[in-house]
Amino acid sequence: MATLPPEISCAELQSLRESGSDHLLVDCREADEHALVALPGATLLPMSQLVERVSEIEGHKQSHLVVYCHLGVRSQRVSQFLREQGFTKVQSLAGGIDGWAEAIDPQMVRY
């Protein structure tokens, strides 16, 4: 099985979502950030609670996971942690939700 690149671009994620391909979108920002703006269908799993709550996504170890944050830094760290926990298909959204707002959905709230 080919290894996925560590990051996925906003355009690639948009294609993935439009194709209906099975994937789990994980928002690793904090709850107040998620309340401000979020991608539809995202599971909120803040980086600050990841160690305690990783079991909530345990059933998705073989699933394609796309992790995002504000700018793409936290999601890289979370993606690496998840790979270390045995999640095999994890990618970080390059540019985070801010990049998504810039490239895909300019109507989206930016902060």
TrEMBL record:
Pfam families: Rhodanese. GO terms for molecular function: nucleotidyltransferase activity. The keyword Transferase applies. Residues 19-109 form the Rhodanese domain. The keyword tRNA-binding does not apply. Keywords: Nucleotidyltransferase, Transferase. PROSITE patterns: RHODANESE_3 (PS50206). This is Putative adenylyltransferase/sulfurtransferase MoeZ. It comes from Bythopirellula polymerisocia. The gene is moeZ_1.
